[in-house]
Design a protein that fits this description.
The complex is a heterotrimer of chains A (about 180), B (about 300) and C (about 425). Chain A has about 180 residues and is mainly alpha-helical. Chain A contains five helices and no strands. Classes of the chains: A mainly alpha (about 180), B alpha/beta (about 300), C mainly alpha (about 425). The complex binds sodium ion (2 copies). The site of one sodium ion (NA) has 8 residues of chain C, from loops.
Chain lengths: ~180, ~300, ~425
């Protein structure tokens, strides 16, 4: 039981950590763009700024996938499913998480393969940053893996307890009043 | 029969894409439809930056790429874009002849079979003002998109500004960039006269687009098909180069017609640029090692 | 005909995955994968990652999360409230009242951002809570937003027009000029619709704004100054050459942080909440974009859009018939593709057709933007619908129904463009003459 609770805390912590890292990458985009502008205005050079901003963009997206999932931010079309009874709804949810997890693991496998190809082929950024591409692609692998893990986690939860753990917050109204 | 999808980075109406389309048609006809090659211009399948890797790893069997974009990976790929080394179509052909065995080998090691290469029209310098010497370039915001252009900016005292392709028009219109090195063709296609006034036909270099096939896909073909492809490739290289020459005249005239001042750089500027070319050739030789030196030596020993 | 079977299969898998509630981005990945596996001999997984990596790591995409973040910051400051307080006395006199702020807001932010998703999130984040609080009918709030956000791609800067311009070698500056007037006309048509609906409907009973004298109105309008300054800074940074269109988004974020600071609403909590909120929203959009990029690759390999375009090219059509066929064509492929992919995958075949038919390519750029934008608000794949679903929590069906009148208005806009081509051509032609003279 303690083990399970520990695992639960670990997984939830991982998703949140991914989200926080992603947010830092988002901040990174802003910093890269501002530095590039500052460099241009002052006659300095910041080689590779657009590429770095691009890597931050990819990392911000992938690392946040799992976090966005657990907070119900990823969109689904729920019209048909809503009409189902509890048993059928459960089956539909199992199908969704099953398909989702399968696709996300597929994505993870090929992301890892792409990063290893980048390493083996010595694939280097064509911009002025000349970064070996496997380095920024690691964020893609980690993010995709975390996403697959989160989907699998929810699938397991659904199978065992009958409910998934996604809690969507309706974000329409102002949080502070 | 089999179908080969061929991603190409530039617009369908670009002469490289037209050459590629004719090459594809030639193979399809030549093999009696056993091998159909379908071109996908405008980066419709894979963007330019992805094409080499996509072909290497077998995601597509054939593709076209400006190899000098990959010089971070191997300096040898930059042999055709060293400024002021080969400055005419004749020189470009001689340089290509000198380099081809080496490039063939480098690509073969990367699981690629080189088919043909067609040069872009000669690269010149675009400005929004008259420029008579390197001193006039000081502080001008110059579009740099790779190490070579960044280094050129440094050596001429210009300020390298990195602007992505999608933003070029707006960047010129609002003065974020004031100058670039590019062919008359690119300037004509992008309609740079809307923001720039001078084009100096410095003929800095004639970088090439290369068409290559995945070696496994190539090995899977029978000899007859390969012979057809090789013949079509030779034809495409010849026809594409002729198109490039024709397009050079057409676009340079077009720039003039649209109100730009198009001239060769003055004597002082030419001499200064040649000196910068020497420096950059020396730097490239240092990076590219013995193979690079062999290419340049063979080129300089041309009759 | 192979194409029919192909369309049928794509539709079946798409509806199966979307209909059973698989997340949109993953559903697109699934459809694309089926297409790759069944209809091509290419390695589906490797090609998938190549295109997904390039899409998600692209510099031009970075403006999107920044604009979303800007919206999140403004949403948490007093700014949106102020903006509504300042606008309400003016808008209150128009039939339809504050609903017009959706349209005016989108028109203004369209001049700042190059995409409709960014325009939609920015304006929607601010306006939805304010309009709801004033009891405006929900379907009108959502519908006007969905429609007006498409102006993000009509009014410059515009990503779709850039991609169109590059793929047919036409001047992007002229295309941008061409989008201005049609964008404004479309905005006016949306506003006219709102006014008529408001007058005609008995269920349109929002809270009445209190009547004010002109003097009081001007006094209240002072609340608009901060937001006007912010917009001026962002647009100014672009047109004065301080920033590129992408970089302008950074100005927007910094500007809204400064504004929040001056209003004393810049706390650690609001900054982190806005950043995390923006991270989630942009991750959601990135997943859909990744799926869409893969679907676009898969469709490219199967050759479907091209085959359809080639088929159209073989039938003898008059100019008007050709435009009508293309209208239907882009609406149909818009069921699967986002606007930019639609343009990239078809232009190689469509460009010669329109040039042969003697259609002005600059004008056609605007036509294409209106047409592919219509696809953004139609199911099953409509980006504005997805973004709105994320923002409001409503079902896709509800949102699609609310947006349907806007779709019809855009159809009317297409005919307006055909009847009065000068809307698109006058400004670029005049600019060219002015330059030449
Ligand atoms: Na816009
Ligand atoms: Na659609």
């Amino acid at each position: 039981m303690t083990l399970l609770r520990g695992l639960r805390a670990l997984l939830d912590g991982l998703y949140t950590a991914g989200g926080v890292l992603a947010a830092l990458c988002m901040l990174g985009i802003l910093v890269m763009i501002v530095l590039q502008m500052l460099a241009r205005w002052t006659g300095e050079v910041f080689p590779g700024a657009p590429e770095y901003a691009g890597y931050c963009m990819a990392a911000a997206s992938f690392l946040a996938f799992a976090h966005a999932l657990t907070r119900g931010a990823h969109i689904r079309v729920g019209i048909l499913v809503q009409a189902l009874g509890p048993r059928a709804l459960w089956l539909a949810e199992v199908w969704c998480f099953g398909v989702g997890a399968a696709l996300a693991w597929y994505l993870t496998y090929y992301a890892a393969r792409a990063a290893s190809w980048s390493w083996r082929l010595n694939d280097i950024s064509q911009g002025q940053d000349a970064t070996p591409l496997w380095i920024p692609q690691l964020a893609m692998v980690a993010g995709a893996g975390l996403f697959a893990l989160a989907l699998t986690d929810n699938l397991a939860h659904l199978l065992v307890t009958g409910r998934h753990r996604i809690r969507a917050e309706a974000i329409q109204d102002r949080p502070d009043r | 029969g089999e179908t080969w999808d061929m991603p190409m980075a530039y617009a369908a109406s670009n002469f490289h894409s037209e050459t590629g389309a004719a090459f594809a048609q030639c193979i399809t006809t030549g093999t009696g439809g056993d091998l159909e090659v379908v071109t996908h211009p405008s980066g419709a399948l894979f963007s330019g930056a992805d094409i080499k890797r996509a072909v290497q790893t077998g995601q597509v069997p054939i593709g076209e790429r400006l190899l000098s974009a990959h010089q971070n990976e191997n300096p040898l790929f930059g042999f055709d874009s060293i400024p002021f080394l080969a400055t005419s179509f004749e020189d470009s052909a001689a340089l290509w002849q000198a380099a081809r065995p080496t490039i063939d080998q480098v690509l073969a090691d990367q699981n690629l079979v080189l088919l043909y290469a067609v040069p872009w029209p000669p690269q010149g310098l675009y400005f929004n003002k008259a420029v008579d010497s390197v001193a006039d370039m000081a502080g001008v915001k110059f579009r740099s998109y790779n190490t070579t252009t960044a280094r050129l900016a440094e050596l001429t005292g210009m300020l390298p500004v990195q602007i992505e392709a999608a933003e070029i028009s707006q960047a010129f219109a609002t003065g974020v960039v004031e100058s670039m090195m590019s062919s008359g063709a690119t300037g004509y296609d992008r309609k740079v006269w809307e923001s720039l006034s001078h084009f100096y036909t410095a003929d800095a270099s004639l970088p090439r687009n290369y068409v290559f096939a995945n070696a496994d896909a190539w090995d899977g073909l029978d000899d007859a098909t390969r012979d057809v492809i090789t013949a079509c490739a030779d034809l495409a290289e010849y026809a594409g180069t002729a198109r490039a020459m024709e397009y050079t005249t057409f676009t340079v005239t077009g720039l003039t017609r649209n109100g730009m001042t198009v001239t060769a750089p003055g004597d002082a500027l030419t001499a200064e640029l040649a000196a910068i070319g020497e420096t950059m050739t020396a730097e490239w030789l240092e990076a590219a090692g013995d193979d690079g030196r062999a290419i340049v030596d063979a080129f300089k020993a041309r009759p | 005909m192979d194409e029919i079977q192909l369309i049928g299969l794509f539709l079946f898998v798409l509806f199966l995955l979307l209909g059973t509630g698989v997340w949109v981005g993953l559903a697109l990945l699934g459809v694309a994968w089926v297409g790759m596996e069944l209809f091509t001999s290419r390695p589906a997984g490797d090609a998938m990652i190549t295109t997904i990596w390039t899409t998600t790591s692209s510099w031009t995409l970075t403006a999107l999360p920044l604009f979303i973040w800007m919206g999140e910051i403004l949403f948490r400051t007093r700014l949106s409230e102020d903006m509504f307080r300042g606008l309400s006395p003016w808008m209150a006199r128009l039939p339809g009242g504050l609903l017009h702020t959706n349209i005016v807001g989108c028109t203004v932010f369209a001049a700042v951002s190059g995409s409709s998703a960014a325009t939609l999130t920015m304006v929607g984040k601010m306006s939805i809570p304010e309009l709801r609080r004033r009891n405006y009918p929900e379907h009108m709030v959502i519908g006007t937003l969905a429609g007006a956000a498409t102006l993000g791609l009509m009014i410059p800067p515009s990503l779709t027009l850039i991609v169109y311009g590059v793929s047919i070698n036409e001047s992007i500056t002229r295309l941008f000029m061409a989008g201005v007037l049609p964008g404004l006309v479309l905005a006016l048509m949306f506003m006219a619709y709102v006014a008529v609906r408001a007058r005609a409907s008995r269920h349109f009973n929002p809270d009445q704004e209190t009547g004010l004298s002109l003097r009081e109105m001007l006094a209240t309008s002072r609340a608009l100054i901060p937001v006007m300054m912010l917009i001026t800074v962002v647009i100014g940074s672009m047109y004065l050459g301080f920033a590129t269109a992408t970089e302008a988004a950074a100005f927007g974020v910094l500007g809204s942080l400064v504004l929040a600071a001056t209003q004393r609403s810049l706390t650690w909590a609001t900054v982190t909440a806005s950043l995390m909120g923006a991270t989630r929203t942009s991750a959601m959009i990135a997943l859909i974009l990744a799926g869409a990029a893969y679907l676009s690759l898969s469709m490219g390999f199967t050759g479907l859009p091209r085959a359809l375009a080639e088929w159209i090219a073989t039938i003898e059509l008059t100019r008007f018939e050709l435009l009508m066929v293309l209208l239907v064509f882009y609406i149909v492929i818009g069921c699967f593709l986002d606007g930019i992919s639609s343009v990239v995958l078809t232009m190689a075949v469509v460009e010669p057709m329109i040039r042969a038919a003697g259609i002005d390519v600059i004008w056609f750029g605007v036509f294409v933007v209106v047409v592919v934008e219509m696809a953004q608000i139609t199911p099953p794949i409509g980006f504005n619908l997805f973004v709105l679903q994320g923002m409001t929590g409503h079902h896709m069906g509800v949102i699609a129904r609310a947006a349907f009148p806007m779709f019809l208005i855009m159809v009317v806009m297409v005919f307006v463009l055909i009847a009065v081509p000068e809307l698109a051509t006058w400004l670029p032609d005049t600019m060219r003459e002015a330059r030449a003279g």
